[in-house]
Specification:
The protein has 577 residues and is an alpha+beta fold. Among the domains are: 171-278, Butyryl-CoA Dehydrogenase, subunit A, domain 2 (Beta Barrel), CATH 2.40.110; 464-561, Up-down Bundle (Four Helix Bundle (Hemerythrin (Met), subunit A)), CATH 1.20.120.470. It is built from 18 helices and eleven strands. It has helices spanning 9-15, 20-27, 44-76, 89-100, 119-132, 136-141, 145-152, 155-166, 280-317, 329-366, 373-412, 422-430, 440-452, 455-465, 473-494, 501-529, 534-556, 563-571, and strands spanning 79-81, 84-86, 171-174, 190-194, 199-210, 216-222, 233-239, 245-250, 261-274, 319-320, 323-324. The strands form three sheets. Strands 3, 4, 5, 6, 7, 8 and 9 form a seven-stranded mixed beta sheet that branches. The chain has a two-stranded antiparallel ribbon with strand order 1-2. A two-stranded antiparallel ribbon has the order 10-11. β1 and β2 (84-86) form a beta hairpin. The chain starts with 8 loop residues before the first helix and ends in a 6-residue tail after the last helix. The structure holds flavin-adenine dinucleotide (FAD). Residues 172-176, 181-182, 208-210, 253, 261, 432, 435-436, 438-439, 441-442, 445 line the site of flavin-adenine dinucleotide.
Length: 577
């Protein structure tokens, strides 16, 4: 029986991280729910046991049902019947299996029927589901919307919607419009207060909405007439029972074909305000997006794991020149780099999840009682780190999932190009990961703050100060030399002023240099705990060293005047026809 949790020791390794005892204690408020709710844990060991048992179920459903259905779902896709989206048969089966196992609303408090999972095991479940079927992970993962309702909506809205999520009611996050993609400040969908109906009314078009026909929709809309920026936007919850939306079409996509992506017309749709007016984009969407970016990180790692395994299996079985192709340096180099990138992505994922766990728990406790000084400092410090790690995570893991699925096809040779092999689908599924929830370019726009305010370099120095066994001294020395090279490049970029176009032009290079350093350090820390990560640590640092050198050389030799050479392409004055 395939079980995508039990067959993956790396997941258990991260679940047993030394900080988990403290994280779970905070999340469980020192196990205050014990005795009040069935299955509430009595102590850390009990909680960990419950996480493992639940993840085993996720692993079994993902291995036995989601993965098995993935091919037919990719082929069949969803359809529209009478203005309603009908999932592919396999998608419906996936949804029911996870719903019946109680795996919706996992992170919600028990009072709303949830499992009160901390982020680490919840994200782990998302990774496992994504390994089963990357596209289906969207439908399941949109339960994240529950978090936003829980954090910001009124008690009435919480009571109305949250228990439904646990029952398997589906969600969607409706932000994008034809003229508002990366720039969500441009959202135009109109929200007007209806005095008679005692509700808000939504009118306008949303496009590219995953699971657009969901039961519960969180919608960003312009509530303040005459405004043109983010300060005029509020957040609303819409219940599908009103049937006030026309599904204009389902997109015919390149990948994640089982995940319905719809264009929707809101026709005077009744909705209720979530939280405060005008805070829609500034506060609530930003918070939801951060959760969704963590989700795409998990999706990317799950897909990377799946593609690596397919490629490794094939390379062992396929023989050429009288031996398995795995034996050729050109092939085993690809596989070793795929493994290293997957391990690096995963360690970044769980480091980010742990920081989010800490600060979210402190935030929640702050609503119950006044925090001690030390707790307030911890909240701020973990939040700062989570804020800079989240865009870095989304950037690296999604780009790596694309590289890994690309190489997985390469390892398969011509067979990889055929629909007979799962890697063909995985390669198509990967392509969206660098686009939705903010493109890679937008992740750089967010992450560059960590370069400018010194957040990354402080973190890197903290990792540098951590002790590791003597076998890691060479790796640590290389990491120090990489850090110095980054500082040189940063100094040069700073000499042009952090607001200049020159700086923006090199922002991705600066962010990526920090990423290689952070992933290198995290893998050394992991390898120091368990030597099965030593290989990946060494390979990632070797890879990172050459990437940092490449980026530094580019920046050191770049003149502001060189920008014109790049701009000429877009000006294109010479090729008028
Ligand atoms: C399959 C799929 C599912 C989706 N699901 C949802 C969903 O559930 N809910 C939802 O609300 N949306 C969803 N989206 C929309 C998605 O989030 C947007 O497509 C994405 O944010 C990019 O917006 P855009 O397509 O308008 O591209 P644009 O914003 O037009 O970007 C075009 C190019 O310009 C670059 N660019 C734009 N601004 C900048 C900048 N400031 N700096 C540097 N480069 C920049 C981009 O990186 C990109 O390369 C989905 C999209 C797809 C394809």
């Amino acid at each position: 029986m395939a079980n995508f949790f039990n067959d993956n020791e790396s997941l258990k390794f991260h679940l047993h991280h030394e900080t988990m005892k403290e994280i779970v204690k905070l999340k469980e408020r020192n196990y205050a729910d014990y005795g009040k709710y069935d299955y509430a844990p009595s102590d850390f060991e009990d909680a960990l046991d419950s996480y493992e048992k639940t993840l085993e179920i996720v692993g079994e459903i993902s291995g036995e049902i989601l993965f098995e259905n993935a091919e037919s779902v990719d082929h069949d896709g969803p359809t529209i019947v009478d203005n309603a989206v009908v999932y592919a048969k396999g998608t419906q089966q996936n949804h029911e299996a996870l719903r019946d196992a109680g795996l919706y609303g996992m992170s919600l408090p028990r009072e709303f029927g949830g499992l009160n999972f901390s982020y680490v095991p919840y994200v782990m479940a998302a990774e496992i589901v994504s390994r089963g079927d990357c596209g289906f992970a969207n439908i399941w993962g949109l339960q994240d919307c529950a978090e936003t309702i829980y954090e910001y909506a009124s008690k009435e809205l919480k009571d109305e919607f949250l228990p439904k999520i646990n029952q398997g009611f589906t969600c969607s996050m409706d932000l994008t419009e034809p003229d508002a993609g990366s720039d969500l400040q441009a959202v135009q969908l109109k929200a007007t207060w209806d005095e008679k109906g005692d509700c808000w009314r939504l009118n306008g078009v949303k496009r590219f909405i995953t699971n657009g026909d969901a039961d519960i929709k969180l919608v960003l809309a312009r509530s303040e007439e005459g405004t043109t920026d983010g300060r005029g936007l509020s957040y609303f919850v819409y219940d599908r029972k009103h049937r006030a939306i026309t599904i204009r079409r389902i997109e015919n996509k390149m990948g994640i074909k089982g995940s319905p992506t719809g264009e929707l017309v809101f026709n005077n749709a009744p909705a209720q305000l979530v939280g405060d007016r005008k805070m829609g984009l500034i506060k609530y969407v930003m918070s939801l997006m951060n959760g969704a970016r963590l989700g795409v990180g998990a999706q990317s790692v799950g897909l990377s794991e799946a593609a690596y395994r397919e490629a490794f299996k094939y390379a062992q079985e396929r023989e050429q020149f009288g031996k398995p192709v795995l034996n050729f340096p050109g092939v085993y180099e690809m596989l070793a780099n795929m493994r290293a990138k997957t391990d690096a992505s995963r360690t970044l994922l769980y480091e980010t999840a742990r920081c989010i766990d800490y600060y979210k728990s402190y935030e929640a406790i702050a609503k119950e009682r006044k925090l001690e000084l030390e707790e307030r400092q911890a909240l701020k410090s973990y939040q700062r780190v989570a804020d800079i790690l989240t865009p870095m995570l989304k950037l690296f893991t999604s780009e790596y999932a694309n590289q890994i699925t690309y190489d997985a096809i390469q390892v398969h040779g011509g067979s990889g190009f055929m629909k007979d092999y799962a890697v063909e689908r995985m390669y198509r599924d990967a392509r969206i990961l660098t686009i939705y929830e903010g493109t890679s370019q937008l992740q750089v726009v967010a992450a560059i703050r960590g370069v400018i305010n010194g957040g990354y370099i402080n973190l890197i120095k903290e990792y540098e100060a951590k002790k590791a066994g003597p076998e890691f001294s060479t790796m640590k020395k290389v990491l120090v030399s990489m850090r110095k090279r980054f500082e040189e490049a940063q100094e040069r970029a700073n000499s042009f002023g952090s607001n200049s176009e020159f700086y923006d032009f090199n922002a991705r290079r600066l962010v990526e240099m920090c990423g290689y350093l952070i992933m290198g350090h995290l893998l050394v820390i992991d390898a120091n705990r368990c030597n099965s990560f030593t290989n990946s640590a060494e390979l990632m640092i070797r890879m990172g060293q050459s990437k940092v050198e490449e980026a530094a050389t580019f920046i050191m030799n770049f003149e502001e005047a060189s920008l014109a050479k790049y701009k000429i392409v877009s000006d294109c004055k010479n090729c008028e026809v």
